[in-house]
Amino acid sequence: MRRLIRWWPLIGLTACSGPDAPDAAVCRDVVVRLCRSAVACPGVAVQLDLGLGCEATLLQRTGCEGDAFAFASPSRERVLECREPLLSWGMSTDHPPTCADATRFLTECPDVAGFFREGQP
Amino acid sequence: MKRLGAAVLVMAVGCAPLDVERRTERGPLLRTYSQEKALNERIPFATTQVQWPQLTLAFSSSDICRTEQHGEYAEDIISTHSNTGAAAAVSTGGLLTVLGGTLLVGRTLFSDTPNRSAIDEQGRYGASSRDVATGWGLGLLIAGVPAVVAGIVQLSRSGETRETRKTDELLSLREVPCLPKPVDGVVELAGGPGPQPPPRLTLNGALVLTADEIRRLSFVGLALDGTPVTLEEEDLDRLETFRTCATLLATPVDPEALAGEARSHPDRLRMKRELARGCTTLPGAPAQPLLEAIEGALGSTAL
Q1: Count of domains forming chain B
Q2: Does residue B33 or residue A15 have the better pLDDT?
Q3: Paired strand residues for B228
Q4: Is the pTM of this model over 0.80?
Q5: pLDDT in tens, B17-37
Q6: Under an 8 A CB cutoff, do B115 and A20 touch?
Q7: Checking DSSP bridges between strand B43-51 and strand B230-231, what pairing results, if any?
């Protein structure tokens, strides 16, 4: 968040955003970020109970590999709120979030973390 | 609508002050005039008058009149308005405006597809290239247009203005005694090396001293009722000449003694001759016999 504030003039000029991304795209974005951090942070992989194929496991577990996916519980707003710590390096998924941010995601949002650990109820 | 445009221009250039350099050039002399006024500071004066063997000191109380000579000139105040940043503002603002305008005009050339590679905090895709170009174009125009307008207005306001006004200068100042009134009082003859002479009373504003008295008295200055009396240079000279002649003419003329002095101290006798010539300027002074005797003594020595 602090790094985002540093770029506020550029963001101000390009503030206009595009349309809402579908739930499936949001879910896949979180999956990619979690899997990137799981490589560098063993604790994350343990907490998410991951096997060898991180992204495949999570996509299958959550069901968001299909474009028709929609959040139910937790809601889309809740997922977006909990996703914020994972955006510390920016919107792009090229850079994984830090271990601290990923841990924060898991500890501060147990409902969302449970969704990614156990799948949609 | 024109007023609105003017208001926008004023706001645009309101924060861009011009540098003003002022210089003054003196023009021709328009006229000269005099101003006279009395200072209301009355002081005692004395004038001298000689009718051998008497010296009359006439006392008066005079005001000081100041005469001022003034000159009135035309003066040009030339103000040069300039702004070194005006040209830079026009060029920079012009560049930004062109860039912004180009982006806005050519915005349709950019893709309208949202940036799907990133999802923001609100869960929205990134803006399309067309939206980004529009944003940058507007931003550049907002920064560039006021800079261009401010620069153009500053350039148009640059230049020289000339304001002519009259100015007054004091050319000369002279203070002279004026409005004299005869005055009576007690005169003190003071400042000499010997005992101070007793004070004397004036009569009809005058004090008469004879050559014998002057020879006996030693004084440097005069005071009337305790206030120092001012004598003009001409009157001081006359007083000193009278004092010298009172001593010089008191001795009877002795041609033999003068002839001896011409032989022993010719320089001293020549100086005495100059003093005797000075005595001839005093009305009634019997200096001619002495002068002729000195001339004769010096002439015979020269032969």
Answers
A1: 2
A2: B33
A3: B223
A4: no
A5: 667 888 988 888 899 999 888
A6: no
A7: parallel
- Residue that is last in its domain, among B145, B167, B189: B167
- Each residue of B130-168: pLDDT tens digit? 988 998 999 999 999 999 998 888 888 888 888 999 999
Judging contacts by C-beta atoms under 8 Å, the chain A residues touching residue B139 are 13
> Total domain count for chain A?
1
Chain A touched by B33 (CB under 8 Å): no
What pLDDT does residue B48 have? 93
User: What is the complex's ipTM, to 2 decimals?
Assistant: 0.78
Find out whether B76 and B22 touch, Cβ atoms under 8 Å: no
Residues B155 and B193 in one domain: no
Expressed as residue numbers, the domain containing B148 is 11-29+73-167
Residue numbers in B near A87 (CB within 8 A): 121
* Same-domain check for residues B239 and B95: no
Between CA B91 and CA B8 the distance in angstroms is: 20
Question: For residue A16, is it within any domain?
Answer: no
| Domain span holding position A32 | 22-118
Which residue spans within chain B are E strands per DSSP? 19-38, 43-51, 54-82, 115-119, 125-126, 159-182, 186-191, 200-201, 206-210, 219-224, 227-228, 230-231
Specify if B6 maps to a domain: no
CA distance A94 to B127: 18
Q: What's the gap in Å between the CA of B102 and the closest CA on chain A? A: 17
**Residues contacting residue A43 through CB under 8 Å, at least 6 positions apart:** A99, A103
